[in-house]
Specification:
alpha+beta; 3 helices; 6 strands; globular
Length: 133
C-alpha cells in the first residue's frame, strides 16, 4: 500500500513528501541502505517506541547487518503539515518483521520532520514512534 494523504493533494511540495515517504517505506522493507542514506539527514535524531534515541548510523547499521527485517509496512492515516522548507508527517503503520531475531507485529504511529537539504532533496532530521494500543 502506498502513502496517501488524508484529503486531496493540491500542493506540489506535499506530493514530493508523499513520494519521499513511499521511497522510505520501500527502502525500509528492502533494507536498501543506499536509499536510506539519501533520505536520512546526517544529524537524524530518532526516538523509537522504547524511548531509545538513535542516529542515522544506528539505523543504517541495523538494516545493513540484517538485524532489522521488515516483512510488512502498511501505512494509513497520513497527515502532512507544511511550514516553508519543513514538512511534518504523522502516519500510522502496521509493521510486521523481526529485530535481532525477535518477531514483532505492531501498530505504530510515526512523526517525522523532513527538511529541504542544501542539495534540494528532502531528508528526515527528526522522528519519533509510539506504539498504538
Amino acid at each position: 500500500m502506498r502513502y496517501v494523504a488524508m484529503g486531496s493533494v493540491n500542493n506540489p511540495t506535499e506530493a514530493q513528501i508523499l513520494e519521499a515517504e513511499e521511497r522510505l517505506r520501500l527502502a525500509m522493507v528492502h533494507s536498501d541502505v543506499t536509499v536510506l542514506d539519501q533520505l536520512l539527514a546526517p544529524e537524524l535524531l530518532f526516538t523509537n517506541h522504547l524511548g531509545q534515541v538513535l542516529g542515522k548510523q544506528d539505523d543504517l547499521a541495523a538494516h545493513q547487518s540484517g538485524k532489522f527485517n521488515i516483512e510488512v509496512l502498511t501505512p494509513s492515516d497520513c497527515q502532512i503539515q507544511l511550514r516553508g522548507n519543513v514538512a511534518i508527517v504523522t502516519v500510522k503503520v502496521h509493521l510486521i518483521g523481526s529485530y535481532d531475531g525477535t518477531d514483532f507485529d505492531n501498530n505504530l504511529r510515526f512523526t517525522r520532520i523532513w527538511t529541504l537539504s542544501s542539495k534540494d532533496t528532502w531528508q528526515i532530521v527528526a522522528a519519533h514512534s509510539s506504539l498504538v494500543i
